[in-house]
Amino acid sequence: MAPPGEGRDAALLPEFPRGPLDTYRARASFSWKELALFAEGEDMLRFKKTIYSALENDPLFARSPGAHLSLEKYRELNFLRCKRIFEYDFLSVGGMFENPLKVSTLTQCLGMYDWSLAAKYLLHTLVFGSAVFSSGSERHFAYIQKIFSMEIFGCFALTELSHGSNAKAIRTTAHYNPATEEFIIHSPDFEAAKFWIGNMGKTATHAVVFAQLYVPGGQCHGLHAFIIQIRDPKTLLPMPGVMVGDIGKKLGLNGLDNGFAVFHKVRVPRQSLLNRMGDITPEGTYVSPFKDARQRLGASLGSLSWGRVAIMGMAVANLKLAVSIAVRFSATRRQFGPTEDEEIPVLEYQTQQWRLLPYLAAAYALDHFSKSLFLDLVEFQRGLAAGDRSARQAELGREIHALASAGKSLASWTAQQGIQECREACGGHGYLAVNRLGVLRDDNDPNSTYEGDNNVLLQQTSNYLLGLLACRVQDGACFRSPLKSVDFLDSYPSILDQRFEVSSVADCLDSAAPRCFPPGGLGEIHRKSRARAVPTSSVPPACPMPSSHHSPICQLCVTENSLKPQPCLCLAFASLCVW
Amino acid sequence: MAPPGEGRDAALLPEFPRGPLDTYRARASFSWKELALFAEGEDMLRFKKTIYSALENDPLFARSPGAHLSLEKYRELNFLRCKRIFEYDFLSVGGMFENPLKVSTLTQCLGMYDWSLAAKYLLHTLVFGSAVFSSGSERHFAYIQKIFSMEIFGCFALTELSHGSNAKAIRTTAHYNPATEEFIIHSPDFEAAKFWIGNMGKTATHAVVFAQLYVPGGQCHGLHAFIIQIRDPKTLLPMPGVMVGDIGKKLGLNGLDNGFAVFHKVRVPRQSLLNRMGDITPEGTYVSPFKDARQRLGASLGSLSWGRVAIMGMAVANLKLAVSIAVRFSATRRQFGPTEDEEIPVLEYQTQQWRLLPYLAAAYALDHFSKSLFLDLVEFQRGLAAGDRSARQAELGREIHALASAGKSLASWTAQQGIQECREACGGHGYLAVNRLGVLRDDNDPNSTYEGDNNVLLQQTSNYLLGLLACRVQDGACFRSPLKSVDFLDSYPSILDQRFEVSSVADCLDSAAPRCFPPGGLGEIHRKSRARAVPTSSVPPACPMPSSHHSPICQLCVTENSLKPQPCLCLAFASLCVW
């Protein structure tokens, strides 16, 4: 391979345009091109470039910064853009199978442009499309072609007005009538209206609808998915018995039409049942490959776990955007300085670094985590498809579920807090809409809620860990898991005993030192450093607070290398300044 | 006084309309009417009722929930509403002096309706008006009458595109020309454009403009304020040499027209100088009651400290609104339950209580703090006006500055985090725009930035505290301040030695117990409670984590009284679940 910056790489990774960031870029201790190639790989970089170039050159994707689109106009534009993405055909079905990571890369590229677009595209193809593909059988595969040609437009209708987290308690009913070989789909009241359904508000013609399946005689077989036409594809008028509409403005993602639907005794053919998990004979007998309803529900909702891993990637993309905006601004914004005439970039201030750089690091760490977990999930799904019923496969499923539940919460909250910090670190300019931090915050926000509320999901991970703990306590088993994510717990007592051992203030600034505290707190470092390492003339005043009240980064303690010593924040507001 | 709920109180505090919250309200252990009278006082409750009744009955203030106003239309409406507030004349200048707390009450009432309205009103009357009144002299008082009749409409133009925090470095110039007895107001380049100025975008006719004052010969006397006409009050067309416009959409407060202005050698009469702090003779000699420029700047920017105290009240109002929305929703939203058929309100879950109730408590605490600090500031200003030059007056000024700096940061961040938690605790419904949590978050957001970035302001408080500490170390002085806010520091070693000492799980749930931890952490409580207090049958499983890793509220440790025991969150995500 040619050295980065030469030959083919120069086209793939051209130099940045010259500007006020040049000074900082010239000071980098590494080649950003090598880092990009290392982190993404050439193939993926090319794929991204294809997508971005297409959008950059297409007037449909041109933006008018500062323009104030009406809700109607924005949604119309978003639908047209979604349609155009299908025309570009960046990724065929074959391509998805060949390199599944390209699916999440495409989502993130579209999201970096506009999350409403990414959501609209994703909900139609991957959520609606995958549900038809994975829950249906051959008789439903005709829909797949129509999905990719956008002859029909779909949505995934699980949530109801009164039931989100508790999906099992969904109240829409599907009563089978053998006389006509039809199901009667019905919403008992407005609280059972399907609600929040992305694409349903204005544009979906078809919906995968979850309902409680009742056989003749009145027995309920639990939640099942049906594919139901809700609008005429030509006129977009609702089908008879379907009351469908838009739920209105949201905090973000307003290019996406989230909707509601109330079904009034809507008759659909028997074949509407997506029958991979359970079917009904023409006469009305229920048949299923699964023995109990709980197992069946788990299998039919299985496609939801992809969502959590996808959300990790989305949150990371938001964090990357926000941190890039804030760090670049901080490198060019000058305020105060050593003299009245010379102001320095705010990035030079310890406080600004302390606010932003941990989020920059988090973006890299979470990016790697989300990609590797995505590939683990691909491996798991391939095992499922191949009929792997080994103990390892089952254990892998549990571990991925636990990692995706915690990882989605961690990534979405880190992005939420990171974007907020970036907004504030850019001061007033961060509050101008044109600088995008507001849109990022608004569009990232539902990542904490959908596909499982973060607080609820964390309990899934806790359950998993407590289960492992119970095995250890009862059977003396070691902490072991297929992806080795829990193995370190075997040595947690010794890990927790580790202490931060440095002998000088300079060591404190060394990122290679583990970030724990000595038994005596940072005060101990002071004492050591005063005794040994720091020349007397530059000894900072000893931090007066007891070590238990130090914030992780005590400004007074580590002023040695700073351009502008700042007072010890931990004195007054230890609880506010802990990152 | 008649018992609450009878006689005149029934009109002042009518019963709530009957509804799904009745059950919880009936269970209250106190009278909400008594609490309201205690917290606000009858006079203030009547004042609020007057304001709210007027707005409720005036069609100009009617809202269309879900309507999507264009930026132009919203700003137009906001201006008309602002004008109407003057017509209602809720509070005369005399009324302000008589009961200054009514000023912040009026601001908060308007803000609870719409912060864009409160900001527009406040910027014109209190910020622009007060600057003219406090920095000007008798020759400027003719403006005051025009301000209250809205013949002119004003803004306060300090910040420039490239200078916010570092106000001393403002670069707009005012050169005095004795030949014409005029100042030449000039912006050297676009970075010196006045920027972010509320009301300047579309509606202000006059601005208090801060500029560096130069006398003939070229000596600079530092920042001074000038009152300058920027638009024709009839046509709203800009005055010659003034390039003025709107800075565009923001994350929130979009009813307010924030603007910019570039001055190109604009000639204004000598009398435009607001000359309380310094004046110029017709011949061009500078005269000032202050000896050095630093002291003069401090005095001319003195009116800014009101802003910080006002922001505390605004943030508290936002927190009150958000917590009310979230707690009411949680009391009516049912999800999961002890059986499949019976779902319980989400407010019954420990996690939901743990997420919301501390913010409810914070709203009460900060409400009291912001009001009492406001009254302290009134006392301080009265001392200033009366010419009090005592040591106590000076010390009071320093203490109020420190409290307002930290209090503004604490209140705005607590509100920011509280609103976010409320948004998430309401799940998807919290993400619907009509439920208002998004607007609250967006409108509260700049409270962390304007009138001093929170991180910068905290250093003001740190400086104050470190100053006191230096006195103690050098002179053995006690921690003492006029408002006694620092006196507790004298006993901080013993305070920090206090330990949480309880002997049973039930004691952990007692809010009267101090919220510290025993030397052994919550694990210690477990061991004690297992040994003594809890019947063996209901002993929860011992929390397996070392005590140093417990979160403040460990779910596993305090499940005894919960409806639905939940796994120990601290095991997996101690760092995420600490409040």
UniProtKB/TrEMBL annotation, chains A, B:
GO molecular function list: FAD binding; fatty acid binding; pristanoyl-CoA oxidase activity
- Provide the residue positions that the database annotates as binding FAD: 159, 198
Record carries keyword Magnesium: no
SUPFAM superfamilies, per this entry? Acyl-CoA dehydrogenase C-terminal domain-like, Acyl-CoA dehydrogenase NM domain-like
The keyword Zinc is assigned to this record? no
Which positions fall inside the Acyl-CoA oxidase/dehydrogenase middle domain? 155-266
Look up the record and name the pathway of this protein.
Lipid metabolism
Looking up InterPro entries in the UniProt record yields:
ACOX_C_alpha1, Acyl-CoA_Oxase/DH_mid-dom, Acyl-CoA_Oxase/DH_mid-dom_sf, Acyl-CoA_oxidase, AcylCo_DH-like_C, AcylCoA_DH/oxidase_NM_dom_sf
The GO annotation for biological process reads: fatty acid beta-oxidation using acyl-CoA oxidase; lipid homeostasis
Cellular component (GO) terms are: peroxisome
Superkingdom, according to UniProt?
Eukaryota
Q: Which residues form the active site?
A: 451
Q: Which Pfam families match?
A: ACOX_C_alpha1 (PF22924), Acyl-CoA_dh_M (PF02770)
Q: What keywords does the record list, in alphabetical order?
A: FAD, Fatty acid metabolism, Flavoprotein, Lipid metabolism, Oxidoreductase, Peroxisome
The Acyl-CoA oxidase C-alpha1 domain sits at 302-466
Q: Where in the cell is it found?
A: Peroxisome
Q: What does this protein need as cofactor? A: FAD
The record's comment on protein family reads: Belongs to the acyl-CoA oxidase family.
Protein name according to UniProt: Acyl-coenzyme A oxidase
